[in-house]
Amino acid sequence: MITITVNGKNVKVPEGTRLLDAIRSAGFEVPTLCDHPALEPWGGCRMCLVDVTRKEWDGWCKMVVSCMFPAEDGLLVLTDTERVRSTRRVVIDLLLARCPDTPLVQQVAARHGLEQTTYEPNPAPTDCILCGLCTRVCDHIGVSAISSVNRGAGREIAPPLHEAPPDCIGCLACAEICPTSCIPYETSDAKRTIWGKEFEMVRCARCGRAHVTRDEAAHFSGRTGVPSTYFDLCDACKRTDMARQFVKLSEGAGTAP
Amino acid sequence: MRIDSRARFEEAVAACRRAADGRKIEVLVCCGTGCLANGSQGVAEAFQREAESRGIPASVGLFTKKTGCHGFCERGPLVVIQPEGILYTKVKPEHAGEILDKATGGGGTLSKLLYKDPVTKKAVEKYGDVPFYKNQTRVAMRNIGKVDPADLDDALAHGAYAGLTRALFDLTPERVIEEVERSGLRGRGGAGFQTARKWKAARKAKGERKFVLCNGDEGDPGAFKDRSIMEGDPHSVLEGMVIGAFAIGAHEGYIYVRDEYPLAVVHLTLAIEQARRRGLLGENILGTGFDFDVRISRGGGAFVCGESSALMRSIEGKTGEPRQKYVHATDRGVFDCPTVLNNVETWADVGAILHKGGDWFASMGTAKSKGTKAFSLVGKVKNTGLIELPMGTTLRHIIYDIGGGILGDRPFKAVQTGGPSGGCLPESHLDYPVDYEKLTEAGSMMGSGGMIVMDDRTCMVDVARYFLSFLMEESCGKCVPCREGLKQMKAIFDGLVAGRGVPGDIGRIERLSEGMQLGSLCELGKSAPNPVLSTLRYFRDEYLAHAEHKACPAGICRDLTAYEIVAEACNGCGSCARACPADAITGEKKALHVIHQGKCISCGACYTVCPTDAVRFFPKRELAAASGTGGAP
User: Fold this and answer.
1) Cα A128 to Cα A95: distance, rounded to the nearest angstrom
2) Strands A62-65 and A49-53
3) Complex-level ipTM
4) Structure confidence at residue A255 (pLDDT)
5) Residues B596 and B564: beta-carbon distance below 8 Å
6) Which residues of chain B make contact with A88, given a CB cutoff of 8 A?
7) Which of B473, B479, B486 sits opposite A46 (nearest CB)?
C-alpha cells in the first residue's frame, strides 16, 4: 500500500491505483466526461485535471489528468486550487460553446458557475462531446466499426466513408455508453437500425422477444466460443431456466445417493 | 563488397578517396528540392551532354555530380566548380557549355553568373567568399552540397562512417554516451533535451527489444532543414542512428519521414540499401557482431505526428494521435519498448561528434547550448536559404550579415522562430544570441529551426491569426482545450481583423491561452498560444488598435484599412492605376491620381508600387466618419 495526501487528507491505496480512484476513495469529487470503469483511461476531456506536488518540490506544482496519472507514495494532491478551477472552467466553457443545448454539459457547466458559454456558441449545436467512449467501447468489443474521423475542429465520430459500417454488429454498445445519448437507433421485433445499417433480430425461442441481432450472436459466439444456440433464449428466459434448475437441484438435495 | 573489419573499412575509404581524387574538376549541381523546382535537373543533364559533345579527354578528370541542397536557394539553380570553389548562380542549361570551356581550359569565370555583393556591387568568384556561406559553420550539414547523396562511395570519401568506426572499434557503449555527454548535444527538434541523458535512460531501461527512431516529420511552415539533410546526406543520419543504437543496445530502428518529402524517401531508401550491402547496416556491422537495421515509415502528412507519442503510434500502424503518458519513451516508447527518438539534425550531429570528439563540438556555442544549429531562413530577407551557425549567433548577424538584410531595405519588424509553437521577436531582440535558453526566455523557442523574417508591412495580429489557422487545421482534436480552444481563439482573431473586435478581447485571449497551456494533452495544444502571447507581449499596441480603435497600424487588415493618394507627392506616373486589380484608380498622365473608395478592395498594391511614396493608408473608420454616412464616396 502507498499513502497519498489529497487536499490535506491522507489515504492509503494499493500500488498501481490511478490518481482519480485514489482521490475519490479519499472522498473528494473530480468531474470526468470521458472516463468509464470498463475502458482504459483516455485523457481527452481534461476535466479531471488536478495539481500534484511533493514536499521536496518547494511549492512547485504539476498539473496532471488524474485518470491517467499513477498514484505515487508521498504525493500531495490538490483538487481545488485556483488554477485547477480556472482551467476546468475554460474547458467546460469551451464544451458548452460546442454543445450549448446538451443537458449533461449544462449541468457540469453550472457546477463551475457557468450558465452560458462566454465563447461563440456553435451555430450548429450538437450533443456529441467527442469523449471517444463509443469508439473505444467498439474497439474493446473487437469490432471497430466506427472511429473518429477528420482532424481538429472537424473531428467527428463516423463509420468509414460515412456509409453503413460493414463491421457493425448492431450491439448498441456505442449508443448505450454515450453519456449524452446522441447516437440514434431504432429497434423493433423485426429489425434494428443503427449507423444507417439494418440488422435482422434473433427472437427468443421461448418468449419470442427480439433480444440480439443475428450479427451480434455470431460475433460473440465466435469471440467467446459459446455455441450459437446460446443465443436461442433471451437473458430473462435463460435466468428463469437457471432458477428452475436450482430449484430442481435443491429439491433433489434431500435424497442423497 | 561487404566490409567486415576495420582494416577493410580503411581500405575501402582509401579506394573511394583515390577515385574522388581522380576527379580533377568537379561540377557540383545543386539538386535539392528548391533548385530542382528551378530546373537544376536540366542543368545537370546539360553539363553531361556538353562534356560529351566537347570530347573532353578522360585525363582532364571532369565529373558532374548531382548534390543535395547548397543552401542558397534564393539564387538557384546553383553550380559550384571544384577545386577552385567557383559559385555560379541562377544557372540555365544553355550556360553549361560556356562554364565548361572556362573550367577545362579557357580559365577565368563567367562573370554574368557570379554572385554580386549587393553592398559593394562587386562580383564574388568563390563560394567561400560569399557572405551567405562565409559566416556559416557546418556540422550537421557538413557534406551536403559536396557529396552525391545517391553514392555511398562518395560519402565514404568525404568521411562518412568515420565516427561509427571509432564508436564500434575503440569505444564501449558507455564511452559513446560519455562522448555525446561531453559534447553537450541537445535535441535539435526544438525542445532541447540533453541527448546523452535520453540515451543513458534507454540504455538502463530493461527490455528485450529497444528502438531508435529518427523524427523526419518536419512540418513547421517555412522549415526545411531536416528535409535537406535527409535528401542531401542521408548517410549522416544513418551513421548517427547506428551509433545511437550501439550506445543503448537497440537492434531495430525507424526513420519517420513525411510523405511530402519524396526525394528524402528515395535517397534514404537508397542509402539504407547501399549501407546494408557494404556491411554498415544490418547484421554483423563491420564484422563486430553488432546488429542493427532501419526501416522507413512514411507519415501521411499530419503535423501532429511530429509529436513523439503520436509519431510512435503512427509507426505502430495506429491513428497518429498523441497519448498522455506519464512514463518516458526511454522506458516505454514504440511498441511499449524502450525507445530513443531524436530529430534528423541531432542524428546527423552524432557522427561528427564521435569522429571529432565531444570537446570539439562543445567548443562551439554558448554555456548551455553547444555546437551549431541549422536554420531555414525565409520571409522578407534578401538571401533566403538553409544555414548552419554556432549557437549564440545573434539574430542581427543572421538576418543582416547572412540574410543580407530586409528585402527592399524596408524596416525590420519581427522575426518568427520555432514555427507554430514559437514566437515573434521584435527589433529590441536583434542582438539576442540564439540559443535554447535565450529564445525561451524571450517567449519564443528554438523549434525545428524555422526563421521567418518580417518587415514593417506585417500585421502581428494577422501573423498570430495565420498560425492559429494552421494549428486549428492540424490539431488532432482529441482533447477539448486544443480542439475547441483553437477554434474559439481563431474566432476572436477573425473578429479583430474584421473590425468586430471589442475591448475585452485581449483579456479573453489571455484567459483562453492560459487554459490551453495548462489543460491541453500534448505540446501542440500547450504551445499553440505561443505565437499569440509573444506577439501580444511585444506588440500589444497593435492588438489594442485592432480591438479598441478598429485600426490596423501596419495597414494589412483589409477591413480596417483604406488608401488615398497624397496630392503633393503624386507625380502622375500611373503605376498605381496599372497595379490596381480593381480598376479603382483613375487619373490623367502626369496629373494627380485618385482612388475611388467604393471600388477599392484595400489590397495595398498601389502602396507597394508607388515610386514617390504618395499612397498612404489610414483606418477605414475615418472614411466612414468623414462621409458621415458610413459609406464610401
Assistant:
1) 10
2) antiparallel
3) 0.92
4) 55
5) no
6) 519
7) B479
The distance of A127 to chain B (nearest Cα, Å) reads 14
Contact B520 A46 (CB under 8 A): yes
Torsion region of B167: left, alpha or beta (phi above 0 gives left; psi -120 to 50 gives alpha): alpha
Beta strand B293-299 with B252-258: parallel, antiparallel or unpaired? parallel
Are the beta carbons of B271 and B234 closer than 8 angstroms? yes
Q: Do B163 and B171 form a contact (C-beta atoms < 8 A)?
A: no
Chain B interface mutation, best of A91, A108, A146, highest count of B Cβ atoms under 10 Å: A91
Given A70, A86, A120, which is nearest B491 (Cβ)?
A120
Which chain A residues contact residue B325 at CB under 8 A? 68
Scanning the structure block, which residue is given the C-alpha cell 540504455? B203
Residue (of B404, B437, B411) closest to B426 by Cα position: B411
Structure-model confidence comparison of residues B631 and B290, the more confident one: B290
pTM exceeds cut of 0.90: yes
Band (pLDDT 50/70/90 cuts) for residue B632 is: very low
Residue B143 to residues B158, B280, B443, B519, Cα–Cα distance (Å): 7, 18, 34, 43
Q: Mean pLDDT for chain A?
A: 94
Distance CA B145, CA B147 (A): 6
- CA closest to A49 among chain B residues: B519
CA distance B435 to B437: 6
What's the pLDDT tens digit per position in A145-193?
999 999 998 999 999 999 999 999 999 999 999 999 999 999 988 899 9
- For chain A, say whether B472 makes contact (Cβ under 8 Å): yes
**Which tens digit of pLDDT belongs to each residue from B42-60?**
999 999 999 888 888 888 8
Chain-centre distance of CA B232, in angstroms? 14
- Among the partner-chain residues B475, B478, B480, the one whose CB lies closest to the CB of A91 is B480
CB contact under 8 A, B477 and A120: no
Nearest to B389 by CA among B95, B138, B79: B138
The verdict on a CB contact (< 8 Å) between A119 and B474 is no
Inform me whether the C-beta atom of residue B509 falls under 8 Å from chain A C-beta atoms.
Answer: no
Residue B118 confidence class, pLDDT cut points 50, 70, 90: confident
> pLDDT tens digit string along B572-603?
999 999 999 999 999 999 999 999 999 999 99
Instruction: Report pLDDT digits (tens) over B368-411.
Output: 999 999 999 999 999 999 999 999 999 999 999 999 999 989 99
The mean pLDDT value for B346-363 works out to 97
Nearest to B477 among A68, A87, A151 (CB): A151
Q: What pLDDT score was predicted for residue B388? A: 95
Contact A50, A66 (CB under 8 A): yes
Out of B302, B475, B485, the one facing A94 most closely (by C-beta) is: B485
A45 CB neighbours in chain B (<8 A) are 479-480
Rounded to 5°, the CA angle B154-B158-B162 comes to 115
Q: In degrees, to the nearest 5, what angle opens at C-alpha A191 toward C-alphas A185 and A195?
A: 35
Question: B302 versus A180: which is more confidently predicted?
Answer: A180
- Chain A environment of B510 (Cβ under 8 Å): none
Interface with A, mutate which of B324, B332, B490 (most A CBs under 10 A):
B324
Chain B neighbors of A147, CB-CB under 8 A: 319
- CB contact under 8 Å between B488 and A94, yes or no, is yes
Structure confidence by residue, pLDDT tens digits, B162-186: 999 999 999 999 999 999 999 999 9
For residue A12, what is its C-alpha cell?
492509503
* B514 at interface of A, judged by CB pairs closer than 8 A: yes
B630 pLDDT exceeds 60? no
